[in-house]
Design a protein that fits this description.
Layout lengths: L1 E6 L3 H6 L3 H16 L3 E5 L10 H10 L4 E5 L10 E5 L5 E3 L15 E5 L4 E6 L10 H19 L4 E6 L23 H12 L2 E3 H5 L9 E2 L16 E6 L6 E6 L7 E2 L2 E5 L2
Parallel strand pairs: 1-2, 7-8
Antiparallel strand pairs: 1-14, 2-4, 3-4, 5-6, 6-7, 8-11, 9-11, 10-13, 12-14
Length: 272
């Protein structure tokens, strides 16, 4: 089976594609549609709490015919955060879980979980610790709550989960690690929390397949015009699986988006 996950940074920007970046986002979306993944998970949809407009809905339906589409939009702040999952097979059950997270995080549309016969499929958009690490403490509480939530799923059946987890786990996961130790996404706390998630029984599939390969990134800052050209990136998007199905993974990687900065889609192929 083939799974793709992507922080799209606005469904509407892709659908309207009125800027150069929007055109690149639209092309990436079309490229994913051509691959016909079994499940396509999206983060940072930025949809209003009312969901997709008619144009957005029709466009996605045309690109992904015969897919079941599930949305979790932020009610805490409309047009912010949000997740979406498109599945070729209808799941047994759909959940938009509340994980007892702090602040307004439980109301920001950050998780969707689908239950299938042999596994759970979940996607997450982990909160960013923010400028000056203003949300770092709350982020730590989120990490604990999210880990506990994933463990409850894993106790029932194996889990495949993905998303923008807003952390570069090790020094190999970002280009400029020496100057970013106090930056959101690479603090000791965030990295330790990610280690705790792995230690709870889950495998980072890309690092499993590429244990010592540097230069594999999933995000390049838009603020720097040369970040993608120079591959000055971060790996903050992940496919994780329950340890007991890690050997079923056949391929995992990052899809090429050319000169488009921000997040790139990630791929997982697994026999399940």
């Amino acid at each position: 089976m083939q799974f793709i996950s992507w922080n799209i940074d606005s469904i509407n920007a892709a659908v309207e594609h009125k800027s150069i970046r929007g055109e690149m986002t639209w092309q990436t979306l079309k490229d994913i549609a051509e691959r016909k993944p079994d499940v396509f998970s999206i983060q940072e949809t930025k949809l209003k709490s009312t969901g997709m407009t008619t144009k957005q809905s029709n466009t996605i339906a045309e690109l992904f015919p015969d897919y079941h589409i599930y949305l979790n939009s932020s009610t805490a702040r409309s047009g912010y955060s949000g997740t979406m999952v498109l599945s070729r097979v209808e799941p047994i059950q759909i959940d938009f879980p509340k994980i007892d997270a702090p602040d307004t995080m439980d109301n920001e549309g950050r998780i969707i979980t689908l239950e299938f016969e042999n596994y759970f499929l979940s996607t997450v958009y982990t909160p960013n610790s923010g400028a000056n690490l203003a949300r770092l403490e709350a982020r730590g509480a989120w990490d604990d709550a999210y880990r506990n939530y994933i463990k409850t799923l894993d106790a029932q059946k194996p889990v495949i989960f993905s998303g923008d987890m807003n952390v570069a786990h090790e020094e190999i996961d970002l280009k400029n690690f020496k100057t970013n130790h106090n930056s959101a996404g690479f603090t000791n706390q965030e990295r330790e929390k990610f280690s705790e998630l792995l230690d709870a029984g889950f495998t980072d599939t890309l690092r499993m397949k590429n244990p010592d390969v540097s230069g594999i990134y999933t995000w390049w800052a838009q603020i720097s015009k040369t970040s993608k050209i120079n591959n000055s990136g971060w790996r903050i998007d992940y496919y994780l699986v329950s340890d007991r199905i890690a050997t079923h993974v056949t391929d995992t990687g990052v899809l090429d988006t050319g000169l488009r900065q921000d997040h790139a889609p990630i791929l997982l192929e697994i026999n399940i």
